[in-house]
Amino acid sequence: MQNSIPIYVGGMFKTTSKPLIVKNPFDGSFVAETFFAEESDYEYAVEAAVKSAEAMKNLPAYEKYDILITVSRELSTQRDRLAQILSAESGKPLRYALGEIDRAAQTFTEAAEEAKRLPREYISIDRTPAGKGKEGLIKYFPIGPVAGIAPFNFPMNLAVHKIAPAIAAGNPIVLKPASSTPLSVLELAKIIDKTSLPKGALSILPMNRTEGNQMVVDSRFKLLSFTGSPEVGWKMKNDAGKKKVVLELGGNAGVIVAETADIDVAVKKCLVGAFSYSGQVCIHVQRIYIHKNIFDTFAQKFSEAVQKLKFGNPMDPETDVSVMIDEANALRVESWVNDAVSGGAKILCGGKRNDSAFEPTVLTNTKREMKVCSLEIFGPVVNIEKCDSVEQAINYINDSEFGLQAGIFSDSTKEINLAFERLEVGGLIVNDVPTFRVDHMPYGGVKNSGFGREGVKYAILDMMEAKILVKEF
């Protein structure tokens, strides 16, 4: 990777007078220099998006397919190099960085396939006397320029979940990556730039939060897609004006381990769900409710497995857990854990911080009002508690302002169906953790977890507007 990475403005690569130094969160070493966009860059990018909207609208399905599938294949070809960049900028263990590049490639493949079957419907108008002799055709048209704001924790794939559907739907997009992790998506821009995508249809603009807020209020954008914190997201929705808004805002994911569960499977799955990328995942396992008759066995096996996780350099293929994105977040997690312990919670393992690293931590005897329970900790901490029944565990999980995804380990169809009907979440994963996601499934939450759905097909639907043609037959 070159030491200086230009930004991508309206189809052009350029530098600016505002350098952005990206450092490795693990050791603070220099990764690369890129640049913050200047005001003139922002204006050029938005105007380029507006001007390219007609060309994007008129792109035939086969050409969108060719663009998207070419990007997918190139991501796979450059997989190892891109994963190393992603790992270096984010501190994500290499094994998970490789998985993220694979998912980004799959997301472009899904978008390519969806570009060939954009929705179109026939509707009978003559269901009433006024509609006699008439029929209707509903066609979906691109909504127009899209503003995308992506987070640091999946710097490639969560950006791709905005870029790929926008292209498939026929929309230009301006994307703001997280300032701490802009490099992998700027490398993606190099790949897309070599395709036949109309110039100006994509811009990648690193900006600080204040400058990025221009995208929220700018009426030239017809849709805002934001992934990030609830505090920021809901304010954006209030400020967005008349544009459509899609928000993916995180959660406080719960898992139910029923008495009929396979304990070893549940331990193995929960271990990954709780501590992948140091818990910096919106659907990270944060709360586990275990039937009281199997709690002690689960707690012992889970704590033993946690203590065997290998901490180290994220570039080491054997590393399971590494640093958090920065020391400020590690300090926040430490403070929340210490507050919980002061309030009576018990640490079963972990609990210590070293600079920006926080040990994988298991707590019990927690209370609803503790931050480690009530808020999204976004760190390597999980709470395990007893429950008397699946019904009680459902109530515990629902006692939260969040509702993104949940998991249940059970062999009982009755328990699974009960959980599916009653849990206040956007998705329930059976005999697996809520951290499970594949990129074509609808993904999003209720309550404070968001508004709308991602997942390629579902994002495309948000990025289009329906129009009906009524005519005589």
Please state the average pLDDT score.
Answer: 97
Query: CATH homologous superfamily of the largest domain?
Result: Aldehyde Dehydrogenase, Chain A, domain 1
Helix content: 25-40%
**How large, in whole angstroms, is the Cα Rg?**
23 Å
**β-sheet strand percentage:** 15-25%
Number of discrete helical segments = 16
Give the strand order, joined by hyphens, for the main sheet. Answer: 14-17-18-13-12-20-21
Number of strands: 24
Taking pLDDT < 50 over at least 5 consecutive residues as the criterion, the unreliable ranges are none
Q: How many domains?
A: 2
What descriptive keywords fit this protein?
Aldehyde Dehydrogenase, Chain A, domain 1, 473 residues, alpha/beta, globular, 6-stranded mixed beta sheet, 23% strand
Fold and architecture overview:
- It is a single chain.
- The chain is of the alpha/beta class.
- It folds into two domains: 7-249 and 450-472, Aldehyde Dehydrogenase, Chain A, domain 1, CATH 3.40.605; 253-438, Aldehyde Dehydrogenase, Chain A, domain 2.
- It has 16 helices and 24 strands.
- The protein has helices spanning 39-57, 61-77, 79-90, 94-115, 157-169, 183-193, 209-212, 214-217, 230-239, 263-275, 295-307, 327-342, 371-374, 390-398, 413-422, 456-462, and strands at residues 7-9, 12-14, 19-23, 30-35, 120-124, 134-142, 146-149, 173-176, 202-204, 223-227, 244-248, 253-257, 285-291, 346-349, 353-354, 357-358, 361-364, 381-387, 402-403, 405-409, 427-430, 446-447, 450-451, 464-472.
- The strands form seven sheets. It has a seven-stranded mixed sheet with strand order 14-17-18-13-12-20-21, sandwiched between helices. It has a six-stranded mixed sheet with strand order 9-8-7-10-11-23, with helices on both faces. The chain has a three-stranded antiparallel sheet with strand order 5-6-24.
- Helix 2 packs antiparallel against helix 4 (94-115) and helix 10 (263-275) crosses helix 11.
- The longest helix has 22 residues, at 94-115.
- The protein is globular and about 70 Å long.
- The protein starts with 6 loop residues before the first strand and ends with a strand.
- The model has no long low-confidence stretch (mean pLDDT 97).
